[in-house]
Amino acid sequence: MIRSLMNYWRKVLFTEPIAILFFILCFLLALFYHYRQRLRILFLVYFFCGTILFFATDLILVLKIFTERQMIIFRETSNTIFELIEFITFYNFFKGCLEGERFKKVLDMIFILFTFTSLIFFIELISSRYPENEIEKHSFYINIIEFLLLSGMCLIYFYELFATIPKLNLFKRPSFFIVTATFFYTVFPIPFFMLARDVFSTSIYDMLSACHYLLLIVMLLSLSKAFLWKNPITT
Question: Which CATH number is associated with domain 2-227?
Answer without folding.
Answer: 1.20.1070
